[in-house]
Design a protein that fits this description.
Layout: H1 3-8, E1 21-25, H2 54-65, E2 69-77, H3 78-88, E3 92-96, H4 105-117, E4 126-129, H5 135-139, E5 143-147, H6 151-160, E6 163-165
Parallel strand pairs: 1-2, 1-4, 2-3, 4-5, 5-6
Length: about 170
């Protein structure tokens, strides 16, 4: 099955309450590009198939199959990320709002609020991110995963025995 059809496959409805959440930073982590591609004026944005970071996309599907709450975390607006969230079957999106950018500590606060709202233990949850600005998000969960080679995150990963995935390799669309 190619990445396009895996990404677009519909999720079956959740039969039980999730016991964990998995947070996925979008730009540079789930997608191998630093910004979410802009949608076209009269239709959807460019196909994302070649922009997926395959190991992170596979982790997202694994968490979904395990019944975890799948949460996208992005600097983009709700409207910009909505098609991606639908395509992936995300359960929640943490995104920028007016006067509330989704960067740095804002990601950590938003993740903590979502965990509280769903009565989930942080120690049971996961986060995937690629840059030092995402450290507050990674610090909120029991299973942080560093994606790529950010030196600050790598230091934290070594000290905390965090998991690591390779950096995405952007491909031409």
């Amino acid at each position: 099955m190619d990445m396009d059809s895996r990404a677009a496959r519909p999720r079956t409805p959740r039969l039980r309450t999730p016991t964990a959440a998995a947070f996925f930073d979008v730009e540079g982590t789930l997608l191998a590009v630093p910004e979410l591609p802009e949608p076209h004026r009269d239709g959807p944005g460019p196909p994302l198939g070649r922009l997926w970071h395959a190991p992170v996309l596979a982790a997202l599907h694994d968490h979904a199959a395990r019944g975890h709450l799948v949460v996208l975390v992005t600097q983009a607006s709700a409207g910009a990320v909505a098609p991606l969230a639908r395509e992936l079957g995300a359960d929640a999106v943490l995104c920028a709002r007016p006067r509330a950018p989704m960067r740095g500590q804002g990601k950590g606060y938003a993740a903590r609020a979502l965990l509280r709202e769903h009565a989930l233990l942080a120690a049971d949850c996961y986060a995937y991110a690629d840059e030092a600005a995402d450290l507050p998000l990674l610090a909120e969960v029991g299973h942080p995963v560093v994606v790529g080679d950010d030196p600050v995150l790598l230091r934290h990963a070594r000290r905390g025995n965090w998991a690591r995935l390779p950096a995405p390799v952007p491909r031409e669309t």
